[in-house]
Amino acid sequence: MDASNGSSSAAAPRSRPLSIRTKPRAPAADTDKWTADDSTAEEPVSPTARLMEPVYIVVTIGLGSPLDLPVFTAHMTSGLPRYSRFQSIQVTEDGKPRWARVKVKVEDHIVVPTLDPVAVAANPDQSVEDYVASLFTLPMDRSRPLWEFHFLDFPSSEATSTAVIRVHHSLGDGMSLMTLLMSSASSAADPTRLPAMPKQPERTGAIYAPQRPRFSGIMPFLAWVCSYFVLAWNTMVDVAAFTIPAIAGYFKLCAFIATIMFLRDPHTLFKRSDDTVFNPPRRFVHRSLSLDDVKFIKNAINCTVNDVLVGVTSAALSRYYFRKSGNSNSDKILLRSVLPVNLRSTPSLQTNVNMIESGKSDDVAWGNQLGYIILPFHLAMHDDPLAYIRKAKKTLDRKKSSLEVVFTCKMSELFLKMFGVKAGAFIFRRMFANTTISFTSMIGPAEQTNWCGHPVVFIAPSVYGVPQALIMHYQSYGSTIKVILSVDKEIFPDYSQLLDDFADSFRCIKDAASKI
Asked: On the CB side of 102, how many CA atoms lie within 13 Å of its CA?
């Protein structure tokens, strides 16, 4: 549900965990044992998956009908063999973790909790929010594949019922999970076909194969050569900014204190003063924006959808920061975010889903195929709301002319292989501890869909297990785009106001774009 505006008690986080009563699960039986002769039994766990040990994906899906558990179970049982990770657990032999295939019973991974009926009747939206937040406290059974479906079978302000998916991040990234979900879905207009996906925008940047230039003179040739010098310089600067604080911290270099003071983000109201809290309790809230309005701004400014989303985020964070801090509006603050980037050579979600439907699921790049860039967010109060979009476009254009994302991926794998899991995890943690926020965006279906026999109203993915107090996701679906916040409830007790700032900033930017 959208977090509500206002100061009512329904909008405030509860002071104690939500009381949840579920039917006890049977212990893992022989059906969950793996066999060594299975084709996936010897597949090693990738370095990226090993670094994801503390991280979980949480996806809230609003459904347009009451829960039909037999229909859902039948759909999942028939579709599960398409994705081997959902049938695998991690086992370790001779110190080397690998995936081992097990037999899975879908019913063992479904939870239908019994909540306090009085609390649900009084405020169903708050009950949904509290339950999703409580998943942080509930351990998962590691003798089974680490995924669960939780169903809240009562109406809220946005949906008739709610599904909550919890998946350990080692099983796959956002693209893997969205591919699996869409392969289990169908078009609401025509249930015989898969949901229509938006046309994949042309991906520009140094990590994608550029066309070879056709030289018509010496000047175009020199410009082409110069672009590679720029690429090399930008990559060197980005990688140095990415690696120095982490490496210095691990090897106790002499410049440790100076480097951390220089490259670590300031302790603003967006950041905990104590970086030792790696996995703080969180709230997961979201708000709907118009995707058509996002595209309107994109066309007016001649930029990309991601430029608009980054600009709106900078405007919203600026509005929240200067109101809360009381600092002068002339101040300018630079914060950094971790931005995961999909490294797949075939980035189209539609292409992946079509491969599954044609029986070529083994050709899909499953798992975690991620690199990272450090994306700066500039906090300032501009008289012209479109200045946030122009600044975002300039920043993202600069990042496209860099191989930072490739180097960060390869360096993480190198450190893991050379120094072991502890060193790799330390570097991974330093990356998040030295920055302020995480930021991602995902493309969803272009039309209304049915998922496992249930109409989908909205899709709101998020994560927990990293130290940042604020994690932001954007997820498109149909004609809307969700902004989803995973917030440290101690740092953002007024997270509804932060969501309001996103909506207000977006409206101001859209109004300014309409006057061009």
From this structure: 24
**Identity of the residue numbered 491:** I
CA distances from 513 to 346, 368, 510 (A): 33, 37, 5
Q: What would the pLDDT profile of 440-472 be if each residue is shown by its tens digit? A: 999 899 999 999 999 999 999 999 998 889 999
Q: How far apart are CA 379 and CA 328, in angstroms?
A: 12
Residue ranges with strand state E in 383-491: 437-442, 449-451, 454-464, 470-477, 480-488
The answer to whether 32 touches 102, Cβ cutoff 8 Å, is yes
The pTM of the whole model exceeds 0.70: yes
Query: What distance in Å separates the CA atoms of residue 397 and residue 300, rounded to the nearest whole number?
Result: 18
**Hey, which residues does 378 pair with through a beta bridge?**
334
3-class DSSP string for 190-205: CCCCCCCCCCCCCCCC
- Strands 333-342 and 437-442 come out as parallel
Task: At 359, list the tokens.
Answer: 């029986």
Side by side, the strands of the sheet bearing 43-44 are 43-44, 96-101, 88-93
pLDDT in tens, 72-112: 999 888 877 678 888 999 998 877 889 999 999 999 999 99
Closest to 227 measured CA to CA, from 261, 204, 249, 245 = 204
Helix residue ranges per DSSP H, 193-348: 218-251, 256-263, 291-301, 305-325
Q: Encoding tokens for residue 451?
A: 């998922």
Contact 259, 444 (CB under 8 A): no
Residues annotated as catalytic (active site), given as ranges: 169
Return the amino acid letter for 479.
Answer: S
User: CA 414: distance to chain centroid?
Assistant: 24
Q: Report, as ranges of residue numbers, the positions in the chain whose pLDDT lies below 70.
A: 1-42, 81, 200-263, 274-278, 329-330, 345-350, 356-357, 359-363
* Pair type for strands 96-101 and 370-379: unpaired
What is the C-alpha to C-alpha distance for residues 172 and 170, in angstroms, rounded to an integer?
5
Location of structure tokens 């175009």: 220
